UniProtKB/TrEMBL annotation:
Record Pfam families: S1
Domain of life per record: Bacteria
Taxonomic lineage of the native organism: Bacteria, Pseudomonadati, Pseudomonadota, Alphaproteobacteria, Rhodobacterales
One Gene Ontology term of the molecular function aspect: mRNA binding
Protein name: 30S ribosomal protein S1
Any one GO biological process: translation
Length: 560
């Protein structure tokens, strides 16, 4: 009977053991450390199963393992039995599974997670999130680029999960998001205590081409280069250094973007308040050239006060020259104040006004009629440009080149660089023009020769050349031509060959053409005039006297 009872109890126990659930492979189970040997922990996971785990799996990155016999731990059961009859378990995979569950919940709740940067990879860093490894992109490490991440390695700190994929085992985190959030809170608190116009102390954190960022105690403000000083500042490093403490004024606060604009010059006296009194119109001052542009040069009259010398006000004579060829940066120059616009903070200056107008000077020293000598600077289709004292030019028009030649022909006699003499015909100071005449040097020979000669006058000329169409004659050095038809009243005597070079001939002036500089001469007209005069004096056609008798009497009278 007793034997039957023991058999029944054994059968019940056996059935109970069969009915007990055994852990599934691929799940996390609890175990107890029963021994530590050869760098491994031997763990009893129950169900008469034991497994081994490397001690390093119990350590956080950069730390030593903290585990002892008797500790209860969770491990991941990969396989119930291996070739040695031991369970294949992993503490690391258990931690990962546990971490993923925790991280997924944090991701869903948009909560921060704690982790430590423990390695560097291409494009960023690796972060241990308590069993799960995440990727931290380089752009998400800090608000500003980080050159040395050494101080951050192994340091436990909060991160924000940006993206995660459990199936692929990918997690992307950000440290920058945490910093920006805390900075935003800090910025809001600091900004709440700032007011526009307030003067505060700050530390220069960064310098750029356009200004400097100043730390006001947890919040940065931008100090633009134009607000650093009343004078021109080419680069912020001229007056600021990183780490320097400066006093600035809050110019503007943008409540929405939390941007703060700062100024230094606003705490100094504005030099423009006294500009009108210190620099009256037409006054001359010495300044320094600070900047040169295509349209002129900026001249500093005093720190904070600059004026523009427009290119048109730089030189009396150099019209199409770049300002950089007239003045140079840092050069000391004398300028005249031409205009002041205090509202726009502009001063118009003149450089040429400090020197006398060269056309006025020339007009005083070379009045009309004076003869000057200069070099031919340029030859154009309408005349010559001649260099004159004072670095100015005068123009000789084609019509003022020669008395005897057409202007188009006369200009061929000149070359660039020739020295010529010319008479000043006109000086127009307002238009900056000087008219010269080469042909008037030495006077007008034609006018001198025929000054007393009028139409109808009888003059004596000398034959200088015999041609088929007539003869060339000369009167007081001026050449004229008598056509064949004007050689005699008698057609039979209208022969050029009856004259010889050097013959003296009396002729009648039929025309004085000052424009063409020619005298119209005729022997025929003289003979007709003499005949008419003889008829009027000695007879008429009604007296019965023949023309021969009248002319004979006239000639006889002339002889007497």
């Amino acid at each position: 009977m007793a034997q039957n009872t023991s058999m029944e109890e054994f059968e019940a126990l056996l059935n109970e053991s069969f009915e007990m659930d055994t852990p599934d492979e691929g799940s996390v189970v609890k175990g107890k450390v029963i021994a530590i040997e050869a760098g491994q922990a031997i763990i009893d996971v129950g169900y008469k199963m034991e497994g081994r785990v490397d001690l390093k799996e119990f350590a956080n990155p950069g730390e030593a393992a903290e585990i002892a016999v008797g500790d209860e731990v969770e491990v991941f059961l990969r396989s119930a039995e291996n070739a040695r009859g031991e369970a294949v378990i992993s503490r690391e995979m258990a931690r990962r599974e546990e971490a993923w569950d925790r991280l997924e919940k944090a991701y869903a709740d948009d909560a921060r997670v704690e982790g430590a940067i423990f390695g560097r990879v291409k494009g960023g860093f690796t972060v241990d999130l308590g069993g799960a490894v995440a990727f931290l992109p380089g752009s998400q490490v800090d608000v500003r680029p980080v050159r040395d991440a050494g101080p951050l390695m192994g340091l436990k700190q909060p991160f924000q999960i940006l993206k995660m994929d459990r199936r692929r085992g990918n997690i992307v985190v950000s440290r920058r998001a945490i910093l920006e959030e805390s900075r935003a809170e800090q910025r809001a608190e600091v900004i709440a205590n700032l007011t526009e116009g307030q003067a505060v102390d700050g530390v220069v954190k960064n310098i750029t081409e356009y200004g400097a960022f100043v730390d006001l105690g947890g919040v940065d403000g931008l100090l633009h280069v134009t607000d650093m000083a009343w004078r021109r500042v080419n680069h912020p490093s001229e007056i600021l250094a990183i780490g320097e403490t400066v006093k600035v004024q809050v110019i503007k606060i943008n409540k929405e973007t939390h941007r703060i604009s700062l100024g230094m010059k606003q705490l100094q006296e504005d030099p423009w308040d006294l500009v009108a009194a210190k620099y009256p119109l037409a006054s001359v001052h010495t300044g320094r050239v600070t900047n040169i542009t295509d349209y002129g040069a900026f001249v500093e009259l005093e720190p904070g006060v600059e004026g523009l010398v427009h290119v048109s006000e730089m030189s009396w004579t150099k019209k199409n020259v770049h300002p950089g060829k007239i003045v140079s940066t840092s050069q000391e120059v004398e300028v005249m104040v031409l205009e002041i616009d205090s509202a726009k903070r502009r001063v118009s200056l003149g450089l040429k006004q400090t020197m006398r107008n060269p056309w006025e000077v020339f007009s005083e020293t070379h009045p009309e009629g004076a003869v000057v000598e200069g070099e031919v600077k340029n030859i154009t289709e309408f005349g010559l440009f001649v260099g004159l004292p004072g670095d100015i030019d005068g123009m000789v028009h084609l019509s003022d080149l020669s008395w005897d030649e057409r202007g188009e022909d006369a200009i061929q006699n000149y070359r660039k660089g020739d020295m010529v003499q010319a008479m000043v015909s006109e000086v127009d100071i307002e238009k900056e023009r000087i008219s010269l005449s080469i042909k008037n040097v030495g006077g007008d020979k034609f006018a001198e020769a025929v000054g007393g000669v009028k139409r109808g006058a009888i003059i004596t000329v000398a034959v200088t050349a015999i041609e088929d169409g007539g003869v060339e004659v000369e009167f007081e050095g001026m050449k004229s031509f008598i056509r064949r038809s004007d050689l005699s009243r008698d057609r039979a005597e209208q022969r050029p060959e009856r004259f010889s070079v050097g013959d003296k001939v009396d002729v009648r002036v039929t025309n004085v053409d000052s424009k063409s500089r020619r005298l119209g001469l005729s022997i025929k007209a003289r003979e007709i005039a003499e005949e008419k005069e003889a008829v009027e004096q000695y007879g008429s056609s009604a007296s019965g006297a023949s023309l021969g008798d009248i002319l004979g009497a006239a000639l006889k009278g002339d002889d007497e």
